[in-house]
Amino acid sequence: MTVQLFEPFPLRALTLPNRIVVAPMCQYSANDGNASDWHVMHWGQFLLSGAGLFMIEATGVEPRGRITPGCLGLWSDENEAAFAHALKIARSYSDMPVGLQLGHAGRKASALRPWEGNGHYAQDDGGWQVLGPSAVPFAPDWPVPQAMTESDIDDLLQNFADATRRAARLGLDCIEIHAAHGYLLSSFLSPIANHRTDAYGGSLENRMRLPLQVFEAVRAAAPAAMPVGVRFNGTDWVDDAINGDEAVAFARALADRGCDFVDVSSGGNAFAKIPVGPGYQVPFAARIRQEVGVATMAVGLIRTPQHAEAIVAGGQADMVSIGRGFLNNPHWPWQAAETLGVNIDVVPQYRFGATSLYRPTWGR
To answer: Which domains does the chain have, with CATH numbers?
Structure first.
């Protein structure tokens, strides 16, 4: 019996060797947006994991687009050079496809690193003026964002396009646009944050306008063979905000514009009450896959190989994106293969240990 989790999956000209994706996980360890030695180690361990795709963390398309001062960026030649150095070393012993999540943190930018506590940096203490669709702060004690002008929007589109061209020069295999979790594009989609009265606010059609323009800018800047996808919320978990119907409509609009995959998450609002549990976001991905037909990625507490296989084999999603599971076990796919009775290849340096621990026939 075929194990669907380990079947290849096509995305435009790219073929993933299996359906397991290492989720983009911010490390807050860059210097002025530049990848550091930490990224070499972090990326390298997952590039030896046996996953089908490694997605690099949310990367700011301009300095104000970083979530924290320690977040990655790809807006300058210096950023690109540091990225190239780290990526070259990390990929030395792996041919795993590598994607990059591009984003702008919007009104949630200038935040403290998680280990520094909750909250944000003041502008006179290493922070910066944050941007948003409207002058509505993320939370009562957060800074009021500067409502974006048409000129700001034009600059944003250019920044996304420029970062995409840099990603292509770096040899990255796909792009994921971050439009989830209350960051800039997500806040344009949500009527909680978006109080605009121009062409970018009000109706769902208007609220989708900027995220769709960003997708079009990235798609136009990317090589024709490079897959481009979008992560967005299936729900905001707040009344009168993004809901399932609006998420389906957004997914359909993306698919109509040539989006190669959608990565369906949720939340990111300060007032959300989220019923967290294993696979709690999977139904949102399943609905979009069923109603829109676009390639779909499920994410959110997918803990066991059996659960991951059930999601893919049951048609709820085409891929599963796993974060915390990889932090706990950087070789999660090895465990999944052993559990599901699949033979996989392992780099020769690890082959003896892997075959002794998991299946004695691997790689022999």
So the answer is: 4-330 (3.20.20.70)
